[in-house]
Amino acid sequence: MKKTVCLLFAIILTACTSTTNSTLYQKLGGQVGIERLTDSFINEIGNDKKILAYFMDANVAHFRAGFINHLCALTDGPCEYKGDSMVAIHTGMNITEADFNRVVDLLINAMDEQKVSHTVQNKILAKMAPLRPEIIRI
After folding, report:
1. What is the pLDDT of residue 89?
2. Which of 19, 24, 65, 136 sits at 20 to 30 Å (Cα–Cα) from 107?
3. Are 48 and 103 spatial neighbours (Cβ–Cβ below 8 Å)?
4. Maximum distance among all alpha carbons in the chain?
């Protein structure tokens, strides 16, 4: 009986440890979770007339694939981002600070829709924050 209780306790501790050590990629639900989040984000963009204007000439399938790959790499998933640099992508788009902030809000809305915890959201946004000066290119 005592060995069974100890074994059960060890299993519970192992499960707790593996959960806390999981990557953001895993916390997002892996590839499927990132795809769902990306689809929600694209939907948010599609419903925002001002931000949608930045994407009028974009290939949505190309954007989707690139964002999934970028988010996968950024969250310590098994992907390596091989797309264009943020500078190359955003130069000439004349993205304002207000519009950049609006896109962040749309991403937060998408994360809320996908029930991503606020702790995970904050960690993802912290990883994305250093890219800000590469995107606002006025």
Report:
1. 86
2. 19
3. no
4. 70
Long-range contacts of 101-106 (CB under 8 A, 24+ apart): 102/48, 102/50, 102/51, 103/45, 103/51, 106/41, 106/44, 106/45, 106/48, 106/51
- Whole-model pTM? 0.82
What 3-state class would DSSP assign to 14? Answer: helix
Q: What is the tens place of the pLDDT at every residue in 33-73?
A: 999 999 999 999 999 999 999 999 899 999 999 999 999 99
Task: Report yes or no: 91 and 133 within 8 Å, Cβ to Cβ.
Answer: no
Instruction: Using the structure block, give the residue that is written with the tokens 């963009």.
Output: 45
Spatial distance between the Cα atoms of 77 and 38, rounded to a whole number of angstroms: 15
